[in-house]
Amino acid sequence: MISVIRAGALGLFLFSLSAASAQTADTASGRPYERVANRIISSGLMSGQAFPILRELTSTVGARLSGSPEAEHAVAWAQQTMQKLGFQNVHLEKVAVPHWVRSSVEEASIILPGPNTEVPLRICALGGSIATPRDGITAEVVEVKSFDELKALGDRARGKIVFFNRPLDPSKVSTFEAYGGAVNQRGQGAVESARPGGVAALVRSMTTRLDNVPHTGAMGYNDSVPKVPAAAVSTLGADLLDSLLASRKGLRLKMKLGCQTLPDAESADVIGELRGSEHPEEVIVIGGHLDSWDKGSGAHDDGAGCSHSLEALRLLKDLGLTPKRTIRVVLFMNEENGLRGAKAYAAKDRPGEKHIAAIETDAGGFSPRGFGVQADSQVVERIARWAYLLRPIEADRIQKGGGGADISELGKKGVPTLGLRVDGQRYFDYHHSDSDTIDKVNERELELGAIALAILSFVLAQEGV
Amino acid sequence: MISVIRAGALGLFLFSLSAASAQTADTASGRPYERVANRIISSGLMSGQAFPILRELTSTVGARLSGSPEAEHAVAWAQQTMQKLGFQNVHLEKVAVPHWVRSSVEEASIILPGPNTEVPLRICALGGSIATPRDGITAEVVEVKSFDELKALGDRARGKIVFFNRPLDPSKVSTFEAYGGAVNQRGQGAVESARPGGVAALVRSMTTRLDNVPHTGAMGYNDSVPKVPAAAVSTLGADLLDSLLASRKGLRLKMKLGCQTLPDAESADVIGELRGSEHPEEVIVIGGHLDSWDKGSGAHDDGAGCSHSLEALRLLKDLGLTPKRTIRVVLFMNEENGLRGAKAYAAKDRPGEKHIAAIETDAGGFSPRGFGVQADSQVVERIARWAYLLRPIEADRIQKGGGGADISELGKKGVPTLGLRVDGQRYFDYHHSDSDTIDKVNERELELGAIALAILSFVLAQEGV
């Protein structure tokens, strides 16, 4: 009898050990979770789905600006994909989103004095811009590199098109930092142009590349000044305009935009999860944004983040790794021009639930480098102790500072927020432009991002934050 | 008088300090060389020449296989470029190199029984292969994944074309490791095919991609067995052949190659340097290989390494940074199919000179990650203490193991050898194929590699190894 009990106990013990080595801490090695992390890595690299998922999104849906039919198609696609992958509690959380639409009418040309001296420029409306009058706007141009420079011009900007031409600072190693140092021209250029009586804003594209592709992006208005139309011009076009302004007298610019803002549309965040086995009420959000700009097909921004998130949860599920806490994929709607999905998600009352961390991936499908953590230093240190699990894929740089736009609303409520950090040198080559297509995504680099996300979210689900 | 002397002494002291902060240890910060490293970073990113150099090489010279007129053009270009950049002691060191030439005749097709059932395959001769008879070889096929499998077939391989179809192992994080695990099929496939009486070797392309582009590369013969022709087939072609072999009886393969080996040609390593101000006889070599395969334009392999090396020395020179020890760029000839330039460089008697380190860059123009060091652990540690200088560009992974083919001959003589490590996920997508062209190179990623090389070679020149 005793021997039977012993055998039974031993059997149970062996079973637990085997489950432990497959799934959990694996503390015997002194490097807990190392085996499970390595299983995630090799399974992802051998038979990962990140690229097929992204290919499907970009080919069957394509670009998907908030409010558009394509965005609704993306919502349906994401919900079906989560169901097909076998996620739990798949559902939509509805949200009203802005509905701005581009028109096929968007053109600009430099007009030099004399006959036959129109030089066309590649432009695109900035997202949220009003249209020009039907015949366009033709005016002289003032070129500035900053709002201070514009202010110093005073009345000389009146009646002019204001051309903002401060490039992304190439000396910055971080292209995101370079972008951050230039993007106020795009966001506030229209308002600042209108203050002294400017009639339109033309903004150098927010890209590290010199080419002939305009890059769109969000801009805003302010009730205190008139609304004027705003467009981005390709960097080559900006350089041309700059050089002609310096060398030719009497230059004027003609700009025509047909875009408009329609009433808000109904859309949704798309949500699915693996329920936690021990603390299902404690939630780790992983996600990106499902909407994109209406250029290219939103492959890196942020198709990659959607694919990372879906694939991370799929990897865990298909490897039979049940997390102790709930890991929830949230594909946020309307990051690009409103953050409505992010705000709605964070504002929703979720009785009994507690978010213990949120991880966003919205920096493209490039090789992962690590995670940025927006939290107090103790939390950063507690998360950073897992860096060795990410070392084999060289994604082990876990450092303070990061997060993401969609999860910042959760951050304001005290939830530690993390952002997947990837190699950022190519991101702004494609960002918000016709160049952001799947051929710019490397299958293995994309998968490695999903793997990094799967490993970190799983260990946080097991061990807490 | 005393006051004059004091003023003079102080003046000298101030001058030294300013030179020190500009150029050398900058020990006051507790992080020596940090300022100079940051100057190199921002200067490279602001006005780097790595990409223009590579564009010139790939557009004016293009592919440059050892022995070809294009390789001689590359030698002249490299010498002129070093002279234009103001390097010192620019010279050629002559070396005889193999001269293998591809022919326009290279074709293969699967022949299925029945009329009109030829299915063409995209192939290319492996470098060094003999031609087939003028009418080609038509034979049955045996498919194997390893030499052991081939051995087990015994006499069943006689008279057949041997198809080596072991892919690069996708589960390896390091694509170089995956390549290393598959490349014996290319290198020794012809010899192993001939042993049991096979008539030709067809090898799955050594790439991580599934596409229709064949990848060439070196192969060898052995005097103990007959020479048989050898070609690479695209990965898509390999998959097709594999599936037809499994499903269709009586399949034969037709292969025709017109390549040949001509007598050795004269060529050269191209060398230029910045002479050391204190220990000019102590030399740090930095370099890549000037030859390429005759496919694409050798942009990543190894135009990038040539560009890295030239740009690293240019950066130091143009920043007025005179090294204490000599930093020498060596652009080696014939890495791809003979290492003749590497061997000649290492064998040459250089009285009074001592090589203290050699750094190779031959892994493509991708974002740098760090350096691999082939030396004893103490040397690795001494080099690794400079990692913080490379931290701002996240190229600070300095670890044991590395080097490079061209500098391995110096390594055999006891010189510590280092290899620039870059993000390797995309390298084998392009390697040795028509895809290896400049549009696959990102300007900033390439420049960052040159910056990493400039920083490390400079600090080693100042501080020794």
Number of helices of chain A: 15
Percent of residues in helices of chain A comes to 25-40%
The counted number of beta strands of chain A is: 16
Structural class of the secondary elements of chain A?
alpha/beta
The side-by-side strand order for the widest beta sheet of chain A comes to: 1-10-12-11-13-16-14-15
Largest sheet of chain A: 8 strands, mixed
- The CATH superfamily of the largest domain in chain A turns out to be Zn peptidases
CATH topology of the largest domain in chain A: Aminopeptidase
Distance between the ends of chain A:
45 Å
What would CATH call the architecture of the largest domain in chain A?
3-Layer(aba) Sandwich
Residues in β-strands, percent of chain A: 15-25%
How does this model look, in words?
The structure is a homodimer of 465-residue chains. With 465 residues, chain A is of the alpha/beta class. The first copy, chain A, has 2 domains: 31-100 and 263-463, Zn peptidases (Aminopeptidase, 3-Layer(aba) Sandwich), CATH 3.40.630; 103-258, Glucose Oxidase, domain 1, CATH 3.50.30.30. Helix content of chain A is 37%, strand content 24%. Chain A is built from 15 helices and 16 strands. Chain A has helices at 2-23, 34-47, 50-61, 69-84, 147-153, 175-180, 184-194, 235-247, 299-318, 340-347, 377-384, 387-390, 408-412, 427-430, 443-463, and strands at 88-101, 106-111, 118-121, 123-125, 137-144, 161-164, 200-204, 230-233, 252-257, 260-274, 279-289, 325-332, 354-360, 368-374, 397-400, 417-422. In chain A, the strands form 2 sheets. Chain A has an 8-stranded mixed β-sheet with strand order 1-10-12-11-13-16-14-15, with helices on both faces. An 8-stranded mixed β-sheet of chain A has the order 3-2-9-5-6-7-8-4. In chain A, helix 2 (34-47) packs antiparallel against helix 15 (443-463). Chain A binds chain B through residues 41-42, 45-46, 170-173, 175, 208, 367, 369, 392-394, 397, 423, 425-426, 429, 442, 444-445, 448, and chain B through 41-42, 45-46, 170-173, 175, 208, 367, 369, 392-394, 397, 423, 425-426, 429, 442, 444-445, 448.
